[in-house]
Amino acid sequence: MIINHWTPHTKLINGKQVKVLYTKAEKLNSNTLTVWVCDNPKCKNPHLKHTIRYSYLRDNVSDTCNLNVQLCKSCQTMGHLNPMYGKTHTNDVKSFLRKNIIKSYETIKEKYGVNNISELDIIKEKKGQIVINFNTLSEIVAKEGYKLLELDGNNKYAMLKIVCPNDHIFFMRYERWKRGHRCVECFYDRLRQNGIRDKEGFLKYKILVLNETKKSLKKFYKHINPLNLSRRRNKYHLDHKYSIVEGFKNNIDPKIIGSKFNLTMISEHDNCSKQDKCSITKEELISEYLRKD
Predict the structure, then answer these.
(1) b/e map of 239-259 (b: 16 or more CB within 10 Å)?
(2) How many CB atoms lie within 10 A of CB 126?
(3) Distance between CA atoms of 176 and 179, rounded to whole angstroms?
(4) 218 with 238, same domain?
(5) Which residues pair with 6 in a beta bridge?
(6) What does the alpha-carbon distance between residue 79 and residue 275 come to, in Å, rounded to a whole number?
(7) Same-domain pairing of 170 and 232
(8) Which of 8, 21, 105, 236 is deepest in the core (most CB within 10 A)?
(9) Are the beta carbons of 160 and 173 closer than 8 angstroms?
(10) d(CA 24, CA 136)
(11) pLDDT per residue over 232-274, tens digit each?
């Protein structure tokens, strides 16, 4: 709630205009100082007064907020009260919001049953996002021979109950599926086929390798990814030329497997096709690591 507006008066001191006095504003302009308190009834500091330049107050009004609704920073982080929710650069979405959304954060959930305007299917479609529902995800997992049994949720954290081509039933969040994770039991079966019986030992070894990989990627990013290829949406994967599985079988130091000499960027398709195969030999990796050029 806006309490009042103040106009600053300046005086030239040492060649600079310095604000020396504020009086109640008769006219509003970009330099007017606005005093306001938070409109959220659950605000932790409801009587705390805030100040802001009127131009910022006017420019920062959200499409999903009433012009008279003002929220402090702490309240803006409270889910649906965030005035930035629902904002988009897509003109079609903005038009839909202006025509159909009641411009008050208190009525969004009452009208649509969601805390966030972005959860609406029509908004997701206009923004080119995947609508998370049973039919859509069934088609996605079926492309790889999996079958969706149950779905709990409507966002990237939705829990999926899936059966794999080898009839293993497992649970997985959709965001993990998007990142390329698949049936764990099939992975362990493949390990046993490769002669690895010590599952716990392999998992500890893998964690050590991945820790070394993170360090190498951070320190030698330009060497590993000189073209700055995007790792978002699984376009490209960070690949171990000599695989972690073979490194464990041959008792190679995790530092060598996770070093910059064993890391490269390849496409998602190539990495999935490669699986546990190696693109270089053990001798080539050791030789390259020992040279450390």
Answers:
(1) bbbbbbbbbbeeebebebbbb
(2) 17
(3) 5
(4) yes
(5) 24, 33
(6) 40
(7) no
(8) 105
(9) yes
(10) 58
(11) 655 788 899 999 999 999 999 999 999 999 999 988 778 777 7
Helix-helix angle 184-193:199-219, to 10 degrees: 100
Question: Does 70 map to a domain?
Answer: no
Q: Is residue 93 part of a domain?
A: yes
Tokens of 82: 């965030």
Domain residue limits at 206: 194-291
Do 238 and 213 form a contact (C-beta atoms < 8 A)?
yes
Would 72 be classed as within a structural domain? no
CA–CA separation, 20 and 44 (whole Å) = 33
What's the pTM value of the predicted model, to 2 decimals?
A: 0.51
Q: At a CB cut-off of 8 Å and minimum separation 6, what does 286 contact?
A: 252, 256
pLDDT digits (tens, 9 = 90+) for 211-238: 999 999 999 998 898 888 877 655 788 8
66: in domain: no
Q: What is the pLDDT of residues 59-108, one digit of tens each?
A: 444 444 444 567 777 776 554 444 444 444 344 444 555 555 444 444 55
**Which residue is associated with the tokens 């649509």?**
112
Residue 199 has pLDDT above 50, yes or no: yes
Q: Is residue 265 a contact partner of residue 236, using CB atoms and an 8 Å limit?
A: yes
Do 3 and 83 lie in a common domain? no
